[in-house]
Amino acid sequence: MKNILTYLGLIGIPLTLNTQVKAQSITSRNLVLNTVTSGDGLYIDNDEEGRYIYKGGSPNNYLKLNNSLYRIISIEVDGKMKIVKNDANGTVYNSSSANFDTKENRKSTNSEDYCNSDYGCNVWGSNTTTLDSNSNNVTQMPKGIGDKLYNLPDKEASLNTYLNTTWYNSLSDDIKKIIVDYIWNIGSVDYYYVKSDAPVSETLNEEATYKWKGKIALMNVTDYIKASTNPECNGFAAFRNYQAKESCHKNITSHNYLYSKISPWFLNPISNPYYSQDNLHLDSANSSLTGVIDFNVATSTLGVRPAFYISSETTLEGEGTKESPYTLYAPKDDEKDDEVDDKKANATDIIKDTIKDDKNSKTDNPQIVEVPATSAKASIIIASIGIIFISLAIIVSRKMIKINN
Predict the structure, then answer these.
(1) Each residue of 63-101: b (16+ CB within 10 Å) or e?
(2) How far is CA 139 from the centre of its chain?
(3) What was the pLDDT predicted at 370?
(4) What span, in angstroms and rounded, lies between the C-alpha atoms of 241 and 258?
(5) H-state helical runs in 227-306
(6) Which of 47, 190, 200, 213 is deepest in the core (most CB within 10 A)?
(7) Rounded CA gap, 366 and 27, in Å?
């Protein structure tokens, strides 16, 4: 509720207009109108045309859903928004951490099968849900880039199954309605041999070699790399554990909001022709190298931050700050049902009250009129103009009477 004080000096009648102004509704189309080129905020993605990404230590990209805080990672070419959970407390099995895959979930003893390790399996999808770079279903996949093809398992990673059933079903219906199926990049990433000066675009291409279509997944490793505003950190090698640039992991929270203290899993495995058990994750346990990218076996217990895409038609309200995060826009009943009636009634009521109060205009304390609320700014303007014309007519009429007398 905002109190708008309008004083019509021409006729000396003060009015206090109590008007309910609609909260500004926001969509991804509005957000992309406010990009920045430095500091924290929404940037044009220079690696993927038509895409926008949030960067910096503390951009205003907070979103509150189900009483939990999330962050908007990106606005895609089609207007959909990529979202990740800001904190992970109580995410999986009432804990903030979980295995990427359990030991017995997909283990095979066949040497021609992809998943034949005692330490879990690092591929997110299965032989029915994994896609190639053209989004065609594939039943085989290499363990390393350029390696021979191995038979994919008939089950998805245990974390995949949990997030897309139990965790997804725990969300409210309002949130489920806005989450959409999306094609995620699940390809393996070169960890050992990537060049120190290789741009992040090379890692993006590796991620996009294989895909998976579904609702809930995890951050890509490139999401983390690209969230930094430090120009020295535009590449996988800058964050890689044993060769990370000090400027990229030191004071990480000042230039990368996606850093997390729970060492969360990334969606992508590392490329290794000998093993199919190692997955990438953010390392926050190493005090001297906190914020670097490392890998661990799929059966390790690490942090989980669910990620998903929401519809381009999703309407939000709020400021995006931690104190006033974006929330799902919910029009009030009177805004939806009574808006037209309010517009018609408001102008009439103001004119009636003004004429009534004019009888008392000779008193020392003119009466302040409380005008009924309205959600339409246009009605206020029209009503004000009406007041002026009516009041002028009254004044002219009085003068004419005096002249005739």
Answers:
(1) bbbeebebbbbbbbeebbbbbbbbebeebbeeebbbbbb
(2) 33
(3) 43
(4) 17
(5) 246-249
(6) 200
(7) 45
**CA–CA separation, 346 and 197 (whole Å):** 65
Residue 88, phi-psi category: left (phi > 0), alpha (psi -120 to 50), beta (remainder): alpha
Q: What's residue 364's pLDDT?
A: 47
pLDDT of residue 363: 45
CA dist 228 to 88, 92, 225, Å?
Answer: 21, 27, 6
Q: How far is residue 74's CA from residue 43's CA, in Å, rounded to a whole number?
A: 9
Q: Where are the domains of the chain?
A: 2-22+332-404, 28-328
Give the C-alpha separation, 252 to 259, whole Å.
7
Structure tokens of 155?
A: 């089950």
The pLDDT, as a whole number, for residue 380 is 54
SS3 at position 53: strand
Residue-wise burial string across 138-152, b where 16 or more C-beta atoms lie within 10 A, e elsewhere: beebbbbeeeeebbb
Contact 105/120 with Cβ under 8 angstroms? yes
Structure token pair of residue 57? 């230590």
> Do 316 and 334 form a contact (C-beta atoms < 8 A)?
no
Q: Which residues contact 392 (CB under 8 A, 6 or more apart)?
A: 10, 11
Q: Where are the beta strands (DSSP E) in 52-171?
A: 52-55, 62-65, 68-75, 81-85, 97-98, 130-132, 140-142, 149-151
**What is the mean pLDDT for each group of 10 consecutive residues in the chain (405 residues)?**
35 38 76 97 96 98 94 98 80 67 94 95 98 97 92 97 96 96 97 92 97 98 97 92 85 94 94 92 81 94 95 96 93 50 46 47 44 46 62 58 50
Residue pointed to by tokens 């304390």: 365
